[in-house]
Protein: 4-oxalocrotonate tautomerase
Organism: Halioxenophilus aromaticivorans
Amino acid sequence: MPVVHFHLSECSASEQQCRQLLEFASQEYARILEAPMERVRGMITVHRNHEMALQGKTLQPGETGAPFFEAMVLRGRNLALRSELMDIFTQGTAKILGIDASVIRGRIIQVDPEDWCIAGKTAAEIRKAEIEARADASNN
């Protein structure tokens, strides 16, 4: 279920930096959650400067703004892990975009397994099937 979504202003990143940010975030997400890479998703939405405000003022042409990210995890992941994700996404974004980490904001969204779907089935159903398959394999 690992999905991370970055919101950037139109002047904040080149195409190469966007690719680097998504690849970095995907690798770190998989590592921290111990999740297979094929489950990881990442995306960037680029907003025009007049569509973003910082400190109560819309961004002017050429201003880079302040990145924001949202990362989703299934409910039950511990605080230390969620904090590590927030820190690594913040520090990686700062390094890749060449900005100060103090302007970056983000959040971790916990999603109930019953409210997340994979190929049309809830994560709760898939978890149950995986547990049953492991139990059957160990009994044979």
Remarks:
- The chain has three helices and eight strands.
